[in-house]
Amino acid sequence: MKSKNLSILEEYNKKLPLYQDFCNAMQNLLSRLLANNEYKYQIASRIKSFDSLKQKISRKAEKGIIYKKLEDIHDIAGIRIIFYLENDKKKFISDLYKELTPQKLELFERNKEKGYMSTHVIARFGPKRLILGEYKKYKGLQCEIQLTSALYHAWAEIEHDIFYKLSEKVINNQQQTVNELKRELEEAMINHIQKASDLLEFVVEKVKNIKSN
User: Fold this and answer.
1) Other beta carbons within 10 Å of 210
2) What does pLDDT average to in each consecutive run of 10 residues of the chain (213 residues)?
3) Which one of 151, 169, 194 terminates a domain?
4) Beta bridge partners of 112
């Protein structure tokens, strides 16, 4: 492994406890925001293990992506928030921009393709929070916040488990078959999961209207 990669891994090995503290602090902040706005949700967090980071750096290098420093890797700390409804996820994104101002967090959105509705937000503590004693040590650290809803999350987990355990040899020998199976699942996602999600949103709104009358 190149000396630059070794340097990144050595730095991470020293900063691993710091990243864990940072991830916990970010999760606590998000949990308060979620609770204060009475969302129904599940939240979980993790930081990459040393071995997982090493594998990521190697995979990216094979694709021509070379990390120059540890801070170039945005998803060392990760938080996943699963909402019951897709509309709650969208509303929470709005709340992030409205209630967590740029002085506190910097946010970037991106949506995955192929039917899976997930929004990834890269967040860091901003200057107003970093001047506080307990937050100073988190300067420069970033966290990837994954936002999705329950139906999409369940589907993605099942799909991941189906293909994750396939060996590289099997995939190489049966590439066309594997690709066809993935396409079929993507079509099922679009034709059924998205429709079910839309219907669930519709039913929830209808029941709210019934209760209010």
Assistant:
1) 8
2) 78 94 94 93 93 88 86 92 88 80 63 63 83 89 89 73 64 75 76 75 78 78
3) 151
4) none
